[in-house]
Design brief:
Layout lengths: L21 H10 L8 H16 L5 H5 L2 H10 L10 H17 L7 H27 L9 H12 L4 H11 L10 E3 L11 E5 L2 E6 L11 E4 L5 H16 L15 H11 L8 H12 L5 H11 L3 H13 L8
Helix pairs in contact: 1-2, 2-5, 5-6, 7-8, 8-9, 11-13
C-alpha cells in the first residue's frame, strides 16, 4: 500500500522586526511616497540618517533614540570627519529628520506614549535651532546654495574621501573654473606645457594648475594657479591629489581624471545625488565660490577672485543677485 505523506510544513515566518538598522531606515526613506518629490528632502534625510548613526555610534535607530539626551549631545557637539563643527542649519535639518522618523516609522515598534516621550526632546531642540537659524538669516543674505565646507562634508559622507567625486569637488573648492579639469594632463616639467591644453604641473614639490584653454580665454591671459604651502585648504588639496596619483599609478602625461565626456556631467550627477537637481553641474560650484567669499572681501580680492574664475566683476555681481533674488536661478556663465 502507498505510504501516507507527512503533512506539509507551514512555511517559516520571518521574525518580526524589533528595530531599524541603518539599511532598513534608508530603504524606508527611499521608498516613502510622502517625502517631497523634488528629491532634495529625501536625499537630505538619507545623509542625515548616516550622520546620526555615525555620531551616535548606533547599531539601530530606536536603540539610539531611547536615550535622546545622549543622542542630542552627540549631534550638536559632533564633528565632521575633517574635525570641523556642523553648521546650525545642518543640525536643524538632522533634528527635523529625527522628528519625521518618530512620526512615520516608530509606530510598528513602540506605543504612542513611548513615541511621544522620545519625540519631545528632538522637537524642542528642532524648534530652538530653527529659531537660531532664522536669526542667522537676518544677519546675512540667505544662501540658496551650500557653502563648499558643507557640500564637501556631504560629498564625503556619500562617496568617501578617497574617490573621484570628493577630489573633483575639492579641486573646484580651491580653483573654481568651469569644465576645465576635463582632460587636464599631469606634467612634471614646465617645458612640457603644450600651451593649448590644460595641465597640472608638479615640479620641485610645487603643484600648479595651468589653464591654457577655457571659455573666456580670448579676454584673459593664461591662468596659472599655485597651491600655496601656507594655506591649509591648498595643502589639503595637494595631499588629496598626491594620494589620488599614487592610488591610480598616474604619471606625467596621464589625465588627472580619466572619464569619457565632460566632468560637468559627473558634477551634475553628484549635485543631483545630494538633492540639488536644478543647479547644473560645475556652474553651481562657481555660485558657491562667490557666495562663500562675499561680503567680507575687499575690492582687490574680488578682482583677484574674478580673474581666477575667468569672468568679470559684473558676472560675479550677477551671481550674487541671482542667489539673493531668484533663489535657485543659475546663469549659464
Amino acid at each position: 500500500p502507498a505510504r501516507a505523506r507527512a503533512p506539509a510544513r507551514a512555511p517559516a515566518r520571518a521574525p518580526a522586526r524589533t528595530d531599524l538598522s541603518l539599511d532598513d531606515l534608508i530603504q524606508l526613506l527611499k521608498n516613502d511616497p510622502d517625502i517631497s518629490k523634488d528629491g532634495k528632502t529625501r536625499s537630505t534625510y538619507i545623509t542625515d540618517s548616516k550622520r546620526v548613526f555615525r555620531l551616535g555610534s548606533c547599531n539601530s535607530i530606536i536603540q539610539c533614540m531611547r536615550e535622546p539626551k545622549t543622542l542630542l549631545k552627540n549631534i550638536i557637539e559632533g564633528k565632521k570627519k575633517n574635525g570641523d563643527s556642523y553648521a546650525i542649519k545642518s543640525i536643524k535639518q538632522t533634528l527635523q529628520m529625527l522628528t519625521f522618523i518618530c512620526d512615520n516609522y516608530l509606530g510598528e515598534f513602540l506605543s504612542p506614549q513611548e513615541i511621544k516621550s522620545i519625540k519631545k526632546p528632538f522637537t524642542e531642540a528642532f524648534d530652538e535651532y530653527k529659531y537660531i537659524s532664522g536669526e542667522e538669516d537676518q544677519t546675512r543674505s540667505e544662501r540658496f546654495v551650500p557653502t563648499f565646507d558643507d557640500f564637501l562634508s556631504a560629498v564625503a559622507e556619500e562617496y568617501g574621501y578617497e574617490g573621484r567625486e570628493f577630489l573633483l569637488v575639492a579641486c573646484y573648492s580651491v580653483l573654481t573654473c568651469r569644465d576645465d579639469y576635463t582632460q587636464m594632463t599631469i606634467i612634471d616639467n614646465p617645458a612640457h606645457d603644450s600651451k593649448n591644453t590644460n595641465h597640472l604641473l608638479i615640479h620641485n614639490d610645487q603643484y600648479t594648475f595651468i589653464l591654457n584653454k577655457y571659455k573666456t580665454r580670448k579676454h584673459y591671459d593664461v591662468i596659472t594657479f599655485h597651491l600655496s604651502k601656507t594655506i591649509d585648504e591648498h595643502q589639503r588639496l595637494e595631499q588629496l591629489i598626491r594620494n589620488w596619483i599614487g592610488k591610480n599609478n598616474l604619471t606625467s602625461g596621464d589625465f588627472l581624471f580619466v572619464i569619457k565626456g565632460p566632468l560637468s556631467k559627473v558634477a551634475s550627477a553628484i549635485n543631483k545625488k545630494l538633492g540639488y537637481k536644478d543647479m547644473g553641474g560645475t556652474n553651481m560650484y562657481r555660485h558657491m565660490r562667490v557666495s562663500q567669499r562675499f561680503p567680507d572681501t575687499t575690492f582687490q580680492e574680488r578682482k583677484e577672485l574674478a580673474k581666477s574664475m575667468g569672468h568679470t566683476l559684473m558676472t560675479q555681481k550677477k551671481y550674487l543677485n541671482e542667489m539673493t533674488v531668484n533663489g535657485t536661478a543659475v546663469s549659464k556663465d
